[in-house]
Specification:
heterodimer; A: 664 residues; alpha+beta; Alpha-D-Glucose-1,6-Bisphosphate, Chain A, domain 4; Alpha-Beta Plaits; Double Stranded RNA Binding Domain; eight-stranded mixed sheet; 21 strands; B: 297 residues; alpha/beta; Rossmann fold; two-stranded antiparallel sheet; 10 helices; 10 strands; elongated; DNA_methylase_N6_adenine_CS (chain B)
Chain lengths: 664, 297
């Protein structure tokens, strides 16, 4: 009954994944890793949209699933009022009813559309999932609702393929005649805010679905992974453990594993001794400190166990393969029964190798010292002209504009704190405060330094070199007043008497001890007469100390950032923008971007600048990992550098308990 | 004879330790502070010199403490949670465990409030009852923290009734206190009072077996308060349950403190009592089972 869509339309959508064709379309906006183009149709007064972008962290197959799964969509798309299948034909064709809540003053609208999925091959041989949807009202499957406008003209196509990094490259085309007159302002709002907002939801949906599915499949094991209390880095920068670091890595995890086993044995022994001697106090104290360390190491130790087991299994399977292949190795794959076994074994190892690589990265990241700066820290970015007079000021102005465009692209909130323009043109000094984003400082810190430009100035015909300096600094939160401790992180210890307690005892046991588990900060309080009062004081004291630790860490980072800052020296150049040759070179990683349309880059830095920053991040992450592993192998000690530092900070704060007893 | 606070403090500490007074440091601190008109000793006081009058007062207090008279009676007042209460022999001195009973009672109170099927929720103020009020510690805290609540307090000992009223008055909540000096077993107790949302109690519960190991301080407190629980310590508790069964509104709660040995017994033999159902047993800060909550169905 349902006519299938012509194949060419699927192919056309698929082709857009490889060759973007925006003829007749104007660039409209860019946000959340997505670019939107539109074409105006003077007869209808409406726009057609083309959208190109990336959805990170989810395969195209998963994205297609998310896109088509109506049940799941109802949960993550807040605009949906009603969404259901009216008619199903085969497993790739259906008619869908969709009632959308558009915000005021637009009225609700509903759509009846036919939808079809096809899986094709792109020109370069990758798989692409293509979904086409068109309004189909001839079948009269559902009556119109009062107060809801039925959209008659509706067309959408969506093509998804892999981006080569575990994510998805997406193309979407969209046309909709919503009927009724809608002010242009609203249409623009819809495209500029509504669409990106929707897309950001779409970005998160596959990841959430993946997490939910993984959790369901792995059950308790996943729960353990998700609830690990080791502080997590904010982005997965490492893709795989580099081979050069593997020997140090193996040595380190071997040592950690042995340390954990020794701890376990010690605690078991002490517990046995305590049981035998009927609760002797000295054994108990030792168990306490050991068991705190044990709990801290356990998540890491579990992962190391998993890794070692997987490696062993992989080695065994490889042995099996080689023995099946025989000494002369002339058995072909798929050849008879043994060949099938070889194939299965190879497939198993393939999956296993992937799991091993993933685990290695996870463990490596756990070994890195914890970050002291909260990941949602806001940032101050300053741009000032360097050497070169007017040219330098013009370049500074362009860089300033570039960073505002980048902030917009990333969906960060920014305020222009300072913007001093010179009469002759250009920027004398500019500063942005960027907030409301995760990992802002982590990305922008690489921009600190001297940026050099080589181009022919507007007035002249000789290539000039001028510079501008950028300085990025983390800004600690001023909202210390809003800082609250999570009660789940606090452990309460009070005096315990050995007898039955209760009414039979009249003792002044009011001392309270609080332990903040994530930072290890301890507070004792005994000044007041009741536990109740001491708890209040201890909580306040604990909050102040944790807050102080946090602020100190922020101040340290700030100082480190400043120490790294220097004068606007020519030799400090971090990046060169060469207009003549259309090339951007970052001198730190020896990264080169070429060819680059400079005007476009300054205007829409988006992906390209993001790419440079990502590469720099990867470099730093690897360097940090190497440093961590080397430091440990040098000292041979159990603690990582981060632990030692954290310990130092904690002991500074634990020195003075709040206690007035024994004052004299 | 030294009169400096710092020196006196260490002397008293040594003296009390030698005699076996529990928490010798606390006793020394608080007695000294009391003599110089303070609540606690801080660094600023360590250099002070006592006057002759203060010194003789201190001597008197110390002698009493050496007789193992409880510190709270000597000082005449002590704190419970965040209120200050008058303490007077032989009324039972509130123990620190009971501070948590107040928290549990408040939880029960909100649980009843949340299920708005209570017939009296809008028309009249809601009622709770404290049985065995002693110094009135629990009632004072509940009346302060639940401004709409009224308390029907039932206490056997006349001295305790007086003290309960006095402490409620000192803390400005006596206008919502309705005190009854009677035994729980009195027939027709509470007459035609409306059904209660909550009954809370810290009844005598020490089992006879534990009486022998009690510290001397407890002999200054009323034997009724300490030994009223009978041999197993459950005597008053069982009476409480029958009282609650008769007087609680549907969905109302009974919350009481008990001995750490009672938990298993209650689970085994008192899972249900009339229309009461055992809801849960909570531990105190030392991890011992201390509080029991029943709900009326």
């Amino acid at each position: 009954m349902l006519q299938p869509f012509p194949n060419q339309e699927f192919v056309d959508a698929c082709q857009q994944l490889e060759v973007e064709n925006t003829d007749g379309f104007e660039f409209f906006t860019e946000s959340h890793d997505v670019r939107i183009f539109r074409q105006y149709n003077s007869t209808s007064g409406l726009y057609k949209y083309k959208i190109y972008g990336f959805l990170h962290g989810a395969t195209p197959e998963l994205c297609a699933q998310v896109y088509r799964d109506l049940d799941y969509r109802r949960t993550w798309d807040s605009y949906v009022n009603e969404l259901k299948v009216l008619l199903q034909e085969g497993d790739d064709r259906e008619v869908v009813y969709w009632h959308v809540n558009f915000p005021w003053p637009m009225s609700h609208r509903d759509y009846v559309y036919q939808r079809q999925l096809k899986i094709l091959q792109t020109e370069s041989g990758n798989q692409a999932w293509v979904v086409l949807a068109k309004a189909c009202n001839e079948l009269n499957l559902i009556p119109e609702k009062s107060g809801v406008i039925r959209v008659i003209d509706y067309l959408q196509s969506c093509a998804l393929t892999s981006d080569g990094q575990g994510g998805t490259r997406a193309y979407m085309q969209y046309y909709d005649d919503p009927r009724g007159s809608i002010p242009t302002m609203l249409i623009n709002w819809g495209a500029k805010t509504g669409v990106p907002g929707f897309l950001s939801m779409m970005q998160k949906a596959p990841t959430m679905l993946k997490a939910a599915t993984a959790a369901a499949a792995l059950g308790a094991q996943c729960g353990r992974l998700l609830l690990s209390r080791i502080p997590l880095r904010c982005h997965r920068c490492l893709h795989s453990l580099p081979d050069s670091l593997r020997p140090k890595f193996d040595a380190r995890i071997g040592r950690l594993s042995a340390e954990f086993d020794a701890l376990t044995a010690r605690i078991a022994q002490a517990a046995n001794a305590a049981a035998a001697s009927d609760g002797a106090a000295p054994a108990a104290a030792k168990i306490e400190s050991d068991s705190a360390k044990w709990h801290q190491l356990k998540p890491l130790a579990d992962k190391i166990d998993d890794l070692l087991l997987l490696r062993q299994l992989a080695a065994e399977t490889r042995q099996l393969i080689s023995s099946l292949n025989g000494v002369d190795g002339d058995l072909e794959d798929g050849d008879g029964e043994d060949g099938e076994l070889v194939d299965m074994a190879k497939q198993e190892n393939c999956d296993r190798d992937r799991a091993i690589a993933g685990l290695e990265v996870e463990i490596a990241e756990m070994l890195l010292p914890p970050r002291s700066l909260p990941s949602d820290c806001s940032v101050l970015l300053e741009v000032k002209p360097g050497v070169g007079g007017l040219e330098a000021m013009l370049f500074a102005a362009e860089l300033f504009h570039m960073y505002t465009a980048y902030a917009q692209y990333k969906g960060w909130h920014f305020d222009i704190v300072e913007e001093a323009r010179a009469d002759i043109g250009g920027l004398r000094s500019g500063a942005l405060e960027i907030s409301n984003g995760v990992g802002v400082f982590d990305e922008l810190k690489y921009e600190t330094g001297t940026h050099r430009v080589q181009r022919v100035p507007q007035t002249g015909d000789v290539i000039h070199t001028s510079t501008a300096t950028v300085f990025v600094m983390p800004k600690p939160e001023d909202a210390a007043a809003d800082f609250e401790l999570n009660s789940a992180d606090i452990e309460i210890q009070v005096h315990k008497s050995s007898g039955p307690g209760g009414q039979g005892v009249n003792k002044h046991m009011s001392a309270v001890r609080l332990l903040h588990k994530p930072t290890g900060i301890r507070v004792d309080c005994q000044v007041e007469r009741t536990q109740h009062q001491n708890m209040v004081i201890a909580n306040r004291m604990l909050r102040e100390r944790v807050l102080r630790l946090r602020l100190e860490a922020l101040a340290d980072e700030e100082r480190a950032a400043r120490a790294v800052q220097s004068q606007r020296d020519r030799s400090d150049r971090i990046r060169t923008y060469n207009y003549q040759q259309g090339r951007i070179t970052d001198h730190r990683g020896r990264l080169t971007l070429s060819p680059v349309d400079m005007r476009v880059f300054i205007d829409q830095p988006g992906q390209q600048l993001g790419g440079i920053i990502q590469a720099l991040k990867d470099r730093e992450e690897l360097a940090l990992l190497e440093q961590t592993l080397t430091a440990d192998s040098a000292s041979g000690a159990g603690d990582s550098a981060g632990d030692a530092q954290a310990k130092q900070q904690r002991s500074k704060l634990n020195n003075t308990p709040v206690r007035d007893e024994g004052v004299v | 004879m030294t009169t400096r606070v710092s020196k006196l403090r260490s002397r008293l500490h040594r003296l009390f330790s030698k005699v076996g007074v529990p928490d010798p440091g606390a006793s020394a601190n608080y007695l000294l502070a009391h003599c110089i008109g303070q609540r606690t000793l801080t660094r600023e006081h360590s250099r002070l010199e006592l006057t002759a009058q203060q010194l003789s007062k201190l001597t008197g207090l110390c002698n009493r403490r050496l007789q193992r008279e409880p510190l709270q009676y000597i000082l005449g007042e002590w704190d419970f949670r965040d209120v200050s209460l008058v303490m007077r022999a032989p009324v039972f001195i509130p123990r620190p465990e009971t501070e948590k009973l107040v928290d549990l009672a408040k939880q029960c109170w909100s649980a009843v409030g949340a299920s708005s099927s209570h017939p009296h929720s809008l028309s009249r103020p809601r009622l709770f009852s404290e049985v065995c009020t002693g110094s009135g510690a629990v009632s004072v805290c509940l009346l302060r923290d639940l401004p709409q609540a009224h308390c029907l307090a039932i206490e056997l000992l006349p001295e305790a009734c007086h003290l309960t009223w006095e402490n409620c008055h000192r803390n400005g909540v006596s206008n919502r206190l309705h005190l009854i000096n009677a035994s729980l077993a009195t027939p027709g107790l509470l007459g035609r009072a409306p059904p209660l949302s909550l009954i809370v109690a810290n009844p005598p519960y020490v089992p006879e077996l534990d009486m022998r190991q009690l510290q001397p301080e407890v002999t200054f407190e009323s034997p009724v308060a300490l030994r009223g629980g009978g041999i197993g310590g459950l005597g008053v508790i069982v009476q409480l349950m029958d009282f609650a069964d008769a007087r609680l509104a549907t969905g109302g709660w009974l919350a009481f403190e008990m001995d750490s040995s009672h938990g298993q017994l209650l689970r085994d033999r008192f899972q249900n009592r009339g229309s009461l159902r055992l809801d849960r047993i909570e531990s105190d800060f030392a991890g011992k089972e201390r509080f029991c909550l029943y709900r009326k169905l």
